[in-house]
Amino acid sequence: MKKLLYVSIFCILAGGCDKKLDQSNPNALTTADYWKTKDQAFAGVTAIYNALINDGSYMRSFPGLTDSRGDDFTGDSPWLDLEQTGKFIIPTNSAPVFWIWRDFYLVITRANQVITYVGNYDASILSPEEKGRILGQAYFLRGLAYYNLATSFKTVPVLTAPPAGQGDYYAATATEEVLWNQIFNDLQTAENDLPISYDNVVGPDKGQKGRATKGAAAGMLGKAYLFRKDYAKANIQFEKFINGPLKGVYSLQSDYRNNFKDVQENNSESIFEVQFQEGAGTDFNWTGEPTAAWKQVTAVSVTYAMEGAGFSDYLPTRWIYNEFKQEQTVDGKIDPRLFATIASYEPTENQTTAYGRPWFNPQDRIYPKKYTNDGLGRPFETPESGINYRVLRYADILMMHAEVLNELNRTSEAYAFIQEVRNRAKLPNLATTKPNLSQGAMRDQIAHERALEFSVEGQRINDIIRWGWLYNTAKLAELKAHDADFNTWTPGNEYLPIPQQELDVNKNLLPNPAN
Asked: Are 99 and 54 in contact (CB under 8 A)?
């Protein structure tokens, strides 16, 4: 198996290649010099992926600031930005918020270059299949970046081409309709152009794991439709995995923990994941402007890891810990997902070690375990980790499909898809324990099931926003009972604020409800 190795290109990293030079510099090529060969086209699209491993994207800040806003996670850090984000009182000059904005626009900038310049290649340079795959990946990655910006900031500028002049750097805020239509269009285009896998393609990307596929685009498009409550279109997307061209391509892993380790990556359940690995690069990719020497490692592990093994910047809430214990397995045990998600001292369950040594913190404390090196055979935590970040799993397709069926008044059909996920956790048949649920009761059941399956995966706050819980008096009271951070929530602050430094330089940019 060949794993996709992310690369950087100096002109791509700079966000453009339009500087006027008196002579050609091979390390800083102009646009006219660069976009000419097949190798440059393939390197250009790979450089888009490289922007996914920056601090503001999936390396650290985006997962952390997204997880902390859910009721399953809370800040526990001397870095006030991380505490305040979970309390929905994040300042507009927050550095991590700016990094998220900056790095997803870096993805968009690179994608725009590939779409524009590779789009001009003719068949003498790239075959139609190669060109389609390259453009399809660029559209997918741009759509993913806009999806993350939309769910994080609500409204942002939409840029679809490299800037033609200075004014293009100061784009106006798009309406929600324009922004989401761009997401839909990008993912639709990607789905049409991308292969189901790269195993049998012809080209330098043959056999590579980690590139965007037809399934990734189809699944993210369904997820986007679901977020916007277009249930009919979302159902069409999810049906492709059940009875359509993607049937049988994906399946659940028998071991839930396989989805969060640095082995068993790009497995049968993984639809799209960001590729991290140790051993590449020389400089740790903290915070600053990207460089070609950056390592390709994630810092989620050290950020989430317990005291004595990492920064312990976040903690699971007691509510989510207790939620895992609400229902026993068919053999009378605790839901096994608890021990893949949360590190806790449980002598009766043989959970008495952490990071390869006897439990070394107060026994009544609980800590994140998912995406950390705990239990992976490493004797101590390091500031580096090669664990891939799973953006979309097949379990999510099954659960979203169940939700869509319920919203389409096909509640009885939702049971089977929920149960497929429950079966892996060895939970009883829901149709037996809770038969004939009403649509409203099924909504609550799905919310419970999603909390357990996807805790600490950047899902919960988006679910809460999508379900409208913050603007429902009873549900808001539940959230406050789950997590005291919600006591300081005020309307609009479920989103991250538009970075103040962006508002200062771009007078066409509008503040959002969190500013």
From this structure: yes
